[in-house]
Predict the structure.
Amino acid sequence: MRFLLYLLIGAASIAMLYFLFIFLSFRINRKWFEKFPGEGKITDINGKKVFMRVKGEGDTIVVINATGSSQAEWWPVQDTLGHRYRVITYDRSGYGWSTADEKPKTVQNICDELDLILNLEGVDKPVYIVSGGTGAIYALYFAMTRPGKTAGVLFINPVPYEYDIWLDNVNYTEDFCNIFETAQRMEKYASKGVYRILSPLRGYKPDKKYKRYIAEHYTRIENYKTIKAELDELVNSARLLKNNVFPPVPLRILNTSIEFLIREWVKNGASEYSARQLGRLLETIIKDYMLLSSDTVFVEVTGTGEHIHLSQPEKVAEEISEMINGHNIKKAAH
C-alpha cells in the first residue's frame, strides 16, 4: 500500500514538473519577444514592423528564408560575407519580431514585401538572392518578375521546380512525411517546449552565438500560424513559376548528394524502397534547374544534409563570393 502511495506521489510530482516546464518555457519565450535583440533592427514599413539584420557594404546579397525558418540560421554566413558585401537577412511578416498581417501568403505578396525592404534600405542596384528549400520558390519568382533587380541567384537544396509533381509523389509514399505533416509535428514539439532541450534542426548544432535566437524562434507558437498560411499557398505559388522566364543571370545550386539524403530519410523512418524511389525522382527533376539559365553551376556537397548553410557556412560563403566575382568579371569584360 505504501509503495502504491509513493508511486502516485512520484507520478504526480513528475506531472507537476512537466507542466511547470511548459509554463516556464512559454513565459520565457514571451519575454524574449517583448524586445528584439541587439543583433538586428526593427524597420517600419507602411506601419508594419520588420525585423532585419544588415551587415557590410558593397554588392547586396539578400537571404530569403525557407518556410518557417529563422534568419539567424544564416547569420554565420552573413558574418563571413559582411566583410566584403552588404548582406540583408530578415523575417517575413508573421515571423519573429516582424508584424503579422492579414494578407494571403502568396508569392506575389512575399516578393512585394521584399521590394519595400530594398527600397527602404536604399538598394538601387541589382541584388544577389540566396535561398534554400521552399524559399527557392519565392526567390525564383522575384528573379523572374524583377529581372532588372536581380544580379544572380544561389540555391541550397531547393525544392524541385516542378514542386507539385514532387509533393504528389511524397504524399503517395505512406512512410514519408510531407511538408505539412512535418510542420504539424514541429508545432506539437514547440507546444511542449522540446526545442529548449533538443535542436529544432535535427542533426545540426546551430552556432553557439545564435543558438538561443533559433531555439526561441522555433518555440514561438505564433510562427506556426504563418507557416500554415504559407504552406496553404505554396503549390499555387510554384505553379506561377511556369508562366515566367528566368533572367540571363548566374544561377548556382548547392545540393546534398542524393545517396546522403536517402540515408537521412531512412534514418528518419522511411523504408529503403520508398527513400530510393523518391531519391531517383528528385535526382531527375532537380536537374530542371539546369535549364533555367545558360550560366548555371551545379555543386554537389558531400557529407552533409539539407541545411548546408548550417553545417558548412564557410562553403556557402565561398560559393556566393565565387558567383559574385565571376559575374563582376564578365560585366567588366563587356
